[in-house]
Write a structure and sequence with these properties.
Radius of gyration: 20 Å
CATH architecture: 3-Layer(aba) Sandwich
Largest sheet: 10 strands, mixed
Structural class: alpha/beta
CATH topology: UDP-N-acetylmuramoyl-L-alanine:D-glutamate ligase
Strand order of the largest sheet: 5-4-1-8-9-10-11-12-13-14
Shape: globular
Number of helices: 11
Strand content: 25-35%
Low-confidence stretches: none
CATH superfamily: Ribokinase
Order of helices and strands: HEEEHEHEEEHEHEEHHEEEHHHHE
Length: 345
């Protein structure tokens, strides 16, 4: 049965204070803004007059920020470098009320940073002109693995943790080999994963949230607009991962949840006109896992994640949303609940 609007609103309330353990690739998103001056005489490029810069959590750190923004209590495990971007990222998380005791600082490691240069008029919306990435890939040491395991043990002594997130951006922190440690350290927790390049290596999950492109890469073929192909792909991938449920996000086509014997296809919340899709997947997995931690079913978590994703794509940059924004989305669009399409396998 589909949940009611009141049930979803109750889950938003129940998210407050819920702990979620998070093993993540920590990324800094740096936005540098400027005002156009003229075209350079040195090359056919725009010259900007520097206006300012802002560093906010990106990558797996954005999933952390989303859980915090929704009122949950994220417990992140990860690694940053002993550089300015690493220090800035830790400070940005602390400003959001996130504990950083589980984040390790590695000497000589460059914190992965996505630097976006934006330009526009002084009082206008800035547009992205170019992006460059600062990237180091690390390999965890045995000492770092042990310290993360110890942090899990410490947290479970103080809290009953109902959900855990693995957010793998390919920078080395989120190793498939750490999944058994997460399982052992969080008995009873529902473990969900979002992995950009190697989801197939994380077998034995409770759930996963690939986008359609990632699902197609794992399956070796396109899904397209064929409903039968989508249903076959979802069931096949869920079986391959050994997961209880699989959520495929499909952009303007909505989301599809696959459980044992059932698929639920959820239309997109809002319109297909978006401002910025940066970090939307982080919002989805953060909302999804937090809803599970609050006692929601996979379908209820899917619906809330769908509402949340529809809100953040209408914002510029790497964005989060508040509980009030999520409540308003649920109240304003009851149509979504009526248009869920069920498929029995």
């Amino acid at each position: 049965m589909l949940p009611s609007t009141d049930r979803l609103l109750g889950l938003v309330d129940a998210m407050a204070g819920r702990p979620v353990a998070m093993l993540v690739d920590l990324v800094a998103d740096l936005f540098i803004t400027g005002i156009p001056k003229r075209i350079s005489r040195e090359a056919p490029v725009l010259i900007l007059s520097y206006q300012g810069e802002t560093l906010i959590p990106g990558g797996g750190a954005n999933a952390v920020a989303n859980v915090a923004a929704l009122g949950g209590r994220p417990l992140p495990l990860g690694v940053v470098g002993d550089d300015a971007h690493g220090r800035g990222l830790l400070e940005a998380l602390r400003e959001r009320g996130v504990t950083t005791e589980g984040i390790l600082i590695r000497s000589g490691y460059r914190t992965p940073t996505k630097v976006r240069i934006l330009g526009g008029g002084r009082h206008s919306i800035k547009q992205q002109i170019v992006r460059y990435d600062i990237e180091d890939r690390l390999e965890l040491t045995d000492t770092e693995r042990d310290r993360m395991t110890a942090a899990l043990t410490h947290w479970t002594r103080d809290s009953e943790i109902g959900a855990a997130i693995l957010s793998d951006y390919g920078y080395g922190t989120v190793e498939p080999g750490l999944l058994p440690r997460v399982r052992a350290g969080l008995p009873g927790a529902t473990v969900v994963c979002d992995s950009r390049y190697r989801l197939g290596d994380f077998t034995g999950l409770d759930g996963a949230t690939p986008n359609e492109e990632e699902a197609e890469a794992l399956l070796g073929g396109a899904i397209g607009d064929d409903p039968a192909r989508l249903d076959d792909a979802g069931r096949s991938l869920r079986d391959r991962l050994g997961a209880r449920f699989l959520l495929i996000t499909r952009g303007s086509r909505g989301m599809s949840l696959f459980e044992d014997g059932t698929a639920a296809h959820v239309p997109v919340h809002g319109t297909d006109q978006v401002a910025d899709v940066t970090g939307a997947g982080d919002t989805v997995i953060g909302t999804f896992a937090l809803a599970l931690a609050a006692g929601g079913s996979p379908l209820e978590a899917t619906l809330l994640a769908n509402y949340a994703g529809g809100v953040v794509v209408r914002k510029m940059g790497t964005a989060t949303l508040s509980p009030d924004e999520l409540r308003e989305a649920v109240r304003s669009d009851p149509r979504l609940l009526k248009e869920v399409r069920w498929v029995e396998s």
